[in-house]
Amino acid sequence: MIRALVALLFVAFALAADGDAQAQTTRPYRIYAITFRGMTDVEKGFQDYFAARRIPVQITFRDLNRDSTRMPGFLEEIRRTKPDLIYTWGTGNTLAVAGTYDNVDPSVHITDIPIVFTLVAAPVLAKVVRDLKNSGRNVTGVFHVAPTEAQIRAMASYRPFKSLGILYTPTEQNSVVVVEEVREVSKRLGFSVIAKPLKLDANKKVTAEGAQDMVRELKQQNAEWLYLPPDTYLGTIAKNVVIPAAMQVGLPAFASTEQLMETGAVAGLVSRYHAIGQFTAYKAEQILVNKVSPAKIPVETLTRFALQVRMDVAEQLKMPPPLPMFNYAELIVPKAEAAAAAAAAATPATPAAPAAPAASATPK
Amino acid sequence: MLEKNYLWRIYWRLAGVIMVCVVVALAVVSYASHRVFDRELVPETEQKAATVGASVRALVLKATGYGIEFAQLYGVEQTFAEVFEENPEFAYMAITNTDGNVLFARGTEPIGARSHFRNPVVLQIAHETTDLSKAARVGQQYIVSMPINDAGKPLGVLHVGIDAAFVDHVLLEVLLDVVVVLVVSLFFTLELLNFMAGARLASGLGEFARQVERMRSGDFTATARIRANDEIGRLLRRIDSAIDHLNVRYEFLVGELQDKLRTASAPRREALKPAQQALEQLGKRLRFGSAPEGSDGDEMNLNRVRAPLFAFILAEELTRSYLPSYVNQLIVAIPGISPQVVIGLPIMLFMLIVAIGQPYLGSWSERVGRRKAMLVGAVVATVGFTGTALAYNLYDLILWRSLCALGYAMVFVAAQGYVLDRTGQQNRAQGFALFIGAIMVATVCGPSIGGILADNIGFRASFGVSALMALASILAIARLPTTEVKPAVAKPTRGPRMREIMALVTNRRFMTLTGLAAMPAKIILTGVCFYLVPLYIVSIGNTSAMAGRMLMVYAVMMVLIVPLSASLSDATMRRDRYVSVGLIISGLSGLLLLLSDSFLVLFGVVFLLGLGQALSIAAQSALVAEHCQEEIRIYGHDAVYGVYRLLERLGNAMGPLIASLLVILWGYQGAFVALSALVLFCGIAFTIATHGSEWTPAAPAHP
Amino acid sequence: MGTIRVRFIIVALVVSFFAVGMAAFLNYFKYKSTIAGIVKSRVLVIGRNIENSVQASLSVGMQFMELGTMNALLQREKASDRLIRGIDVFDQTGQILYSTERARVGEKVASTWTEAAARSKTTEWGTEATEEYVAGISLKNNFDLTVGFLAMRYSSEEIERAAKVAGREILLASIFSFLGIALIAPLALIVVIRRFERDLRALEAAASHLEDRAEPALPTGSAFDSAIGNLRSSLRDANAALDDLRAKLDAAP
Predict the structure, then answer these.
(1) Which is it for strands A253-255 and A267-270: parallel, antiparallel or unpaired?
(2) How far apart are CA C203 and CA C223, in angstroms?
(3) What are phi and psi of B540, to 5 degrees?
(4) DSSP state of B699
(5) How much is the pTM?
(6) How far B60 CA sits from the closest chain A CA (Å)?
């Protein structure tokens, strides 16, 4: 009798163990990812996170390659394959898949599969979600621009200032909002803001004309920093137009995104794409593994951003970063010097930062 | 009474002498400690300075490794500032070049630093390539110097200055605790004097005084008491014998007179008339014979309950300043309940058990006997304290704390009954003064000492100390007289009935007193003192000992002000004014935190709270008797007071709950302010409600 | 006259024993916690250095599990302070990922470590076993997710030794000052008690002459004078009344 019972128990145990193992190994979570311009570091971070957490996932990558005509095909494929989760890169992709919160067309947009977006600069402004705390939709995600105040404070910790210059595109709502935020912060922290909108041509299209003069004017008006807001058009002219002018008059530029950082700003507070990807994966884990409804998962950005400093630019400007910054900043050195610096650095584990990802473009 | 004051004068003088001795001894101990601290801590701190310095140096070398000129480094002072923030004992940091010229510096430069930096021996350090550091005393600082050497290329020297006075700062913190120990020692002294020598002395002198009074009023009845064999006992025996002689003489005279009257003829009777009249006169003025059987030795036995009660209450009071922090440490998430409320849960439950248990435990202790009830209570509490010390998590902690609460309620009620049984109408107040006195002294000594213990030996060991105190109280209770005194007119006490509760709760006059004064006072007491202060103090980075000091301020205020306000409010008969003023002062206390959130302000809060409570507490319950005559006539004195006490104690239980909810809403400071505002509102409402003519004291009506 | 005097002296001794004992206790523990704090913060300085390196590696996209230079870095940092016995880095489950001792990698740390880390409200935590103290730092990634823990094991010997030395000296000082009190307090108390005893003696003396008809010179200065006076006068009154009765009785034939 007892023996029979023991045997029975044993079988039950074996079955339970087997069931466990099956659940873990058989079916990985299926994720359908739509990128905008091929694979970036974000996707690498996204995959790395699942690998590190040993969460089995099967990711189907589809690239829009900046061609929006491909989107209907993707949506059709999603409806057909019914993945567990959809990953969308950038504002355009996200809106194409999910629609704005006030204009959802179930025949076009996906509503029954959780969507996790990434690299959307301003989710509320773009009407992806109404409220960051809880989206209220089957959508959540990660945005990547550091809070304006954090950027201002980072600038001040590099070099304190009394007056801040800004160039921005008046037709980009995103930039206008950021400029407003900077003005708000300036009241609290006590500095003056000189914001100059880029000129519009006859067709009301923004133009780079006169941008260099504006930079020089800013310098004459005693601006101590040139702040580059997350501005798409500015991004395209920064490297060849704005930065050279700023370097000429010795006005340091501070970048708000990784892309702007690459144009040659001396410093910037940016979100590393890799970390953004990991954070996006963390949100996906909440949905897939912990079964939290996306509607209840806040839309957030990183809590710690990478403060990047271009050492060669700093040297040209005669503005070495303050000593405490060597503890936490990511110091970017032109390739040739990198090896030497790494050898000399006293804390050997500090990586001589590799040049940021080759491809560069802001989302959307 | 002259003798009572006389004895207290003696006590104070004795306590003064003892205190002087203690202060001298504490000074000696502190001085010796300072020497040890100085000798041992300085080398340790120098080591730490070397490690911190090495970390700064690594940063400097990292920067120069990126090609930044050593002399052109930017923000070095900022790095120094960050170091100071983490290490307050460092007063000065500097980097010199290889010539000893200061390139970067921050903090207070000690006198003689410049020449020290140029000293060739110090400059030689720059050429060291190892991890060496050298320490030297320069002015008021110990300077630790180390090389900044880039793989063989000397760049300069890094100096870290340690403030030589930092040891003083460390000891200053101890000094605060030592002051607490001094205050507690003073109270201990008085308590012990009372316990060890005073009880017998006081009753002896009291007996003497009463004897004098009796004789003055013409009472020469002989008492058949056994006098103790000490100074006072001998004295009383002398008086007894004098009285005996008088009685013998009186009886002899009376006998003689009666003899003569019996045998005398009419004319002779006439002659005896003056003598007879004199005897009658004498009988009116003086009394002889033997005294009625007195309540023998009651006063002595009454005093004997004080020590065990003190030890027992102390066990509980010890935990006041750190219990919330301990709960916080053992907390387990209860779904649906905020952790803030969970922290308050054990306190709440404690108060609730005491509130609800007391009426029923009263009659229980009457049945089983006061001594036995106290014993059972103390044992239950001892088990509770031991369990609390060993608690695994919040759930069993709640069980253990409930045992503590049950034990507390048992001992409290039984001790109260013990006093009631042994006091009559005329000395009841005195009996309760003794009862309250023991509790007050325990509230002064307990939280402060408990906080100190918790900080130094940990929460669990501190609960162990409480368990030991409770155990000690068991031993003391066991020594109480085993014979129970049953007052002749004893009617069994009982808990208030639901009908009475309902009737009184809906009674406007009764609820004005209870709901607007008594309950808010208790809510702010337990909410602030037992919940908010311990948690807030720790949350702003202070210690449990500091929380204990705060609670001591409250208790000291009570000890000092309550007797004063009790007699003043009795004398003026405007008790409601005292309650109003007390409530309003209590209500203003928390508003102080609107000014600043420093712990000094918190001292002010507790001070005002103590003042407010002390002013109103004595007058509050007297007001019930004064203004609820009608209700007392209908429901009886016991029922009215039973419901009053029950509601008051429910206020005790509600305090932590309300406070914790307020913390969730507005944080600690907000909770202080909101709780005070609530009491302030009640205070103002009470003032307005009692303004009418209905509330004007009709002095002659109440004797 | 002895009993009261002895009792008062016992009270003095008990109280001063308490006070001196508490003061010694406070000083000793303050010393111990101060020195432990100094040593711990010294260890944490090294911990912060390591944390900075880890942080830098993580923010450029390296995986926490794959920090190739970590073991070497831990070795170097350990060598910088002789106090440190070993440094471990472990993950959320308590499994050691990197260590100064190769053999420890893959093992689980004591559960007290993970508990202490979980309980701490800051990124710093610590435990104190009898042999070994641990100072730890929680390592967080860019979005505040704790990825692992850094634990520096250091010897408790130095603290224990220092505490022992200081403890002995403080104890000695306390014993001496207590003995001092034991000598001085009784003498000082006797001054106060003497007065009390004199009062009592005066009272007793007066009481012993209560029935003397002769009016003895009252001992002055005693606090009981008025009470004695009262006593005497009421006795005198009573006696006088009885005398009166006696006289009236005698007057009758």
Answers:
(1) parallel
(2) 9
(3) -95, 20
(4) G
(5) 0.71
(6) 7
